[in-house]
UniProtKB/TrEMBL annotation, chain A:
InterPro entries found in the cross-reference section: Nase/OxRdtase_comp1 (IPR000510), Nase_comp1_CS (IPR000318), NifE (IPR005973), NifE-like (IPR049939)
Function comment: This protein may play a role in the biosynthesis of the prosthetic group of nitrogenase (FeMo cofactor).
Protein name, UniProt field: Nitrogenase iron-molybdenum cofactor biosynthesis protein NifE
Signal peptide from the UniProt entry: none
Parts forming coiled coils: none
SUPFAM superfamilies membership: Helical backbone' metal receptor
Family label: Belongs to the NifD/NifK/NifE/NifN family.
All residue ranges annotated as the Nitrogenase/oxidoreductase component domain in the record: 38-432
UniProtKB/TrEMBL annotation, chain B:
Catalytic activity reported: N2 + 8 reduced [2Fe-2S]-[ferredoxin] + 16 ATP + 16 H2O = H2 + 8 oxidized [2Fe-2S]-[ferredoxin] + 2 NH4(+) + 16 ADP + 16 phosphate + 6 H(+)
Lineage: Bacteria, Bacillati, Actinomycetota, Actinomycetes, Propionibacteriales
Designated name of the protein: Nitrogenase molybdenum-iron protein beta chain
Record-linked Pfam families: Oxidored_nitro
Domain Nitrogenase/oxidoreductase component: 23-444
GO molecular function: nitrogenase activity
SUPFAM superfamilies given in the database record: Helical backbone' metal receptor (SSF53807)
Species this protein is from: Brooklawnia cerclae
Length: 452, 461
């Protein structure tokens, strides 16, 4: 592992080598070509899918542009979240403060769009010039009668994870403000699902068939009114563990709502999630319905998986995604396709996640936290991977090496969640790994492609 | 989201909705990638760098490398010096670039980090290896736009490397020009070079992203693909007879810098998009010693032939154009020359010069045109609602308007996030004009075919 920065050695390990816990949740080393984002980014991705809220980025123009409709979080109704609003701070505001501008912007937008709530994202520079966003928000909220919630997401606070916390704090201010009347006892909130490619709709459909009521989506296809009554639900389901576990814990403390960590990727994890819910509600009929549902769905998906597996058996994969929970499901899903995971990494995993990964993966699998392109490309070549599962910045990297790719991040157009998602995943991996293009594309032309 | 735009335009002073531009650092990053073996370096929070890399990756579909100072709370209070020193040391020991191009961000600008001073410190501390360079550009995101950032990094290239050179080329040497190509695709930079060399000239393009951001698939990942202007070339900027700045906004300042430092006269031209601007570009090259070969003359002839064949389809069609100022100006002229009527012309950059220039390009047609500097896509949408057009030219973000108003739409400019191939095709030169014109024609005629009632749906158009 020659390409690992010495200061990063603790962030790389191999399954089965019995060494100490992986070091994680630290800022990227200054000067590294990190694949990671900042606090603002973390809070923005979590909150942005709330479709009937106004999302105003308080700062210079850039932050708003780079997060404008990037995530592909679909809404079944309002689509206010897909517009990009920015206070577009200029030099004079940096000198004299941007509070007036923020207030004017909020007033104008609320008047025009009548949102159910407004989120104000505080970017790094606002943190430095010291605008009192809290005060402005309070004032505008009083004048307009809607919740105006500041999101303390100064970029320099840390990594994405701190942004998740800021987002959860903002959500907590909304939760508990609505009436819980009429919420049944078999009810849940969906936490940490952002409805990429309409994924949350698949899960909702399963839950409906089981007889479970969904109170609020946090946050894919989310609505302010639902979120405000989320404290009435009987159970919280946490899918993206990195982003919303904290929220679930806080809700447990404050409202006594228990939570379950779930994953909707892959057949095992999907079925496991549904059974877990049914067991929680201790309703034998629901359990029976769930069994039927799982059996029916799996029977539809298995033929697809089998067909793809024939070609994929024995191929090697690398995974580098945002959340560690997703990485765990991916290892299992790839196994189902007969593939071996040679490298698995995440940007936001914690020590517990990595411990779990080490136990799960075959001995020798490389496990990394917060990697960078030269590291990744070297591993990819050394491990002779046939597939890379990653995000936007990893795609061209894989292609240059002649390695197939599957996007498991913002740029999804087909749902990967649910049983159906496993079929999509199988087809997509199959399509990329078996694409005729690889017969023309040279692969791994040198073992150590980066001069280090 | 498409029904959120009201028709009535009201004056907005505090707010940007659906911006038509973005912040300076990303422009600096793009320019820096046009130096051979250069690692762009973003001095600020890791988020900025990550966003800029993602955005550029989405456009170019190629790996975009850049390092970050990875600011923490401490840095934002006590200054970023330790981060930059540590960062430079990491970069030189790990990634081994020949040059590091530092750009600031809104954060490091606001806390007031003095980059030259810190780099000086790095020099003293021996962090910068012999024969390696660190250049920098100040790119506060609360002033200017991504185009300003691009321009600032081009200036930095001249500032750090250009020097007076006594020994001018001999009469027998090829005529030599520097070209600042502006914010165009790698393919455009390649085309500009091809044209110049076809005239028997030698050209130093800076920046030059050809080969960097449209690099071939080779089976390995290269941190520094083969393209880009080399340090040696930059150090020899002073040898050229002239520096041609293509585009006032993205390129002029760098040409001035070369003139001031190395006494090479500058000439500011429009981006050679369309027939008129390409003519002027070639005229200028000829004046500087180039000889226009028959092959290029024939290219022009083919373009004219194309326009003759298509003029009836373009004539009097209304068009809206949005994007970076240099592109928009050139596109406006091209549309005018095709016989179209540019009804709305908008850029996100600030400056009366834009309005003046577009007015001048449109001549007697200017009175009927909405020219907007410092506009956003929301405003453009409103303008189009109030006065519809037949065609929209702009970057990817125009797709929302195109869909809402059911408009034919041609993607041109930056960024293009939802199509592939734009970084291989060209829009500059005569060949580029045919490619672009043909895309525009396709959009118009596809529309006509789609809308035609059965009896009017014809085989030959
Ligand atoms: S924080 Fe500033 S420099 Fe960074 S992306 Fe946002 S606007 Fe641009």
């Amino acid at each position: 592992m020659t390409t690992v920065l010495s200061s990063r050695l603790g962030q790389v390990a191999r399954a089965g080598d019995g060494s100490a816990d992986i070091v994680c949740d630290k800022q990227s080393v200054a000067g590294s070509v990190s694949q990671r984002a900042c606090t603002f980014c973390g809070s923005r991705v979590v909150l942005y899918p709330i479709a009937d809220a106004l999302h105003l980025v308080h700062g210079p123009i850039g932050c708003a542009v780079y997060t404008w409709d990037i995530r592909g979080a679909l809404s079944s109704g309002p689509e206010l979240h897909r517009l990009s609003f920015s206070t577009d701070l200029r030099e004079r505001h940096v000198v004299f403060g941007g509070e007036g501008r923020l207030e004017d912007s909020l007033m104008e937008l609320i008047e025009r769009h009548h949102p159910s709530a407004a989120f104000v994202y505080v970017t790094c520079i606002v943190g430095v010039i010291g605008d009192d966003v809290e005060a402005v928000s309070r004032k505008v909220s009083e004048r307009t009668g809607i919740p105006v919630i500041p999101v303390q997401s100064e970029g320099f606070q840390g990594s994405k994870r701190q942004g998740y916390d800021a987002a959860c704090e903002a959500l907590l201010r909304l939760i508990g403000t609505g009436s819980t009347e009429g919420i049944g006892k078999h009810s849940v909130n969906l936490l940490g699902d952002f409805n990429l490619a309409g994924e949350i709709w698949i899960i909702q459909e399963y839950l409906k068939r089981m007889g479970v009521e969904v109170v609020a989506n946090l946050t894919g296809d989310g609505r302010v009114a639902d979120i405000s009554r989320a404290h009435g639900a009987a159970l919280n389901l946490v899918q993206c563990s990195g982003s919303t576990t904290q929220l679930a814990k806080d809700m447990q403390k404050k409202y006594g709502i228990p939570f379950q960590k779930v994953s909707y990727f892959g057949l095992d994890d999907m079925a496991g999630a549904l059974y877990g819910i049914a067991e929680h509600f201790k309703d034998p009929e629901m359990l029976a319905r769930t069994r039927d549902l799982v059996a029916e769905e799996i029977s539809q998906v298995l033929p697809v998986v089998e067909a793809c597996r024939k070609d994929l058996e024995g191929k090697r994969a690398a995974i580098y995604v945002g959340g560690a929970f997703k990485a765990i499901s991916l290892v299992k899903a790839l196994r189902l396709l007969g593939m071996k995971t040679a490298l698995v990494g995440s940007q936001t995993g914690n020590a517990e996640d990595y411990r779990y990964l080490r136990d799960l993966c075959d001995p020798g699998t490389i496990i990394v936290d917060d990697s960078n392109p030269s590291e990744l490309s070297t591993f990819l070549a050394e491990e002779k991977c046939d597939l890379f599962v990653g995000g936007v910045k990893e795609r061209p990297l894989a292609y240059k090496l002649g390695v197939a790719f599957c996007d498991h991040n913002h740029e999804r157009k087909l749902p990967l969640e649910g049983f159906l998602g496993m079929a999509n995943f199988a087809r997509e991996v199959h399509a990329s790994v078996c694409s005729p293009v690889w017969q023309f594309a040279p692969r791994f032309q040198s073992a150590n492609p980066v001069e280090v | 989201m498409l029904d959120h735009t009201p028709t009535q335009v009201v004056e907005r002073s505090a707010l940007r909705i659906n911006p038509a531009n973005t912040c300076q650092p990303i422009g600096a990053m793009y320019a820096a990638l046009g130096i051979h073996r250069c690692l762009p370096y973003s001095h600020g929070s890791q988020g900025c760098c990550s966003y800029h890399r993602s955005h550029l990756t989405r456009h170019f579909k190629d790996p975009v490398m850049a390092a970050t100072s990875s600011f923490t709370e401490g840095a934002s209070v006590f200054g970023g010096q330790p981060n930059l020193l540590q960062g430079l040391s990491t970069v030189f020991t790990t990634y081994k670039p020949d040059v590091v191009a530092v750009n600031t961000t809104c954060l490091s600008e606001t806390i007031g980090d003095d980059i030259p001073q810190i780099v000086g410190q790095a020099q003293t501390d021996g962090i910068i290896p012999d024969g390696k360079y660190v250049i920098h550009a100040n790119t506060p995101s609360y002033a200017g736009t991504h185009v300003t950032g691009f321009s600032n990094m081009c200036v930095a290239m001249a500032k750090y490397f250009a020097k007076p050179i006594e020994t001018k080329p001999k009469a027998t040497d090829k005529p030599w020009v520097n070209i600042v190509p502006g914010w165009v695709e790698p393919s455009d930079m390649r085309e500009i070079r091809r044209i110049t060399e076809a005239l028997g000239m030698k050209a130093t393009l800076f920046p030059d992203t050809a080969g960097v951001l449209d690099s071939p698939q080779t089976g390995h990942f290269e941190m520094y693909p083969s393209g880009g202007v080399t340090i040696e070339e930059l150090q020899n900027l002073g040898r050229a007879q002239a520096t041609l700045a293509l585009g006032q906004w993205a390129s002029r300042e760098a040409a001035i810098e070369v003139e001031n430092r190395a006494y090479v006269p500058r000439e500011v031209l429009d981006l050679p998009i369309g027939i008129g601007a390409t003519d002027r570009f070639l005229e200028c090259l000829r004046f500087r010693g180039g000889v226009i070969p028959k092959s290029i003359e024939e290219e022009r002839g083919r373009l004219v032939d194309f326009i003759v064949d298509t003029q009836q389809h373009f004539y009097n069609k209304k068009v809206a154009i949005a994007g970076d100022p240099d592109q928009v100006i050139a596109l406006t002229e091209f549309c005018r020359d095709l016989g179209m009527i540019p009804v709305h012309v908008l850029t996100g950059n600030q400056g009366k010069a834009f309005t003046r220039k577009v007015t001048q390009v449109l001549g007697d047609k200017a009175a009927g045109t909405h020219i907007e500097q410092k506009g956003d896509m929301f405003l453009l949408h409103q303008l189009i609602k109030n006065e519809p057009v037949d065609l929209l030219l702009g970057n990817t973000y125009g797709k929302y308007i195109a869909r809402a108003e059911d408009l034919p739409f041609v993607r041109v400019g930056w960024p293009i996030l939802d199509r592939v191939g734009h970084s291989y095709l060209t829009t500059v030169g005569y060949t580029g004009a045919i490619q672009l014109g043909s895309k525009m024609l396709d959009a118009l005629l596809d529309r006509r075919d789609r809308d035609a009632a059965d009896p009017k749906f014809e085989l030959v158009l």
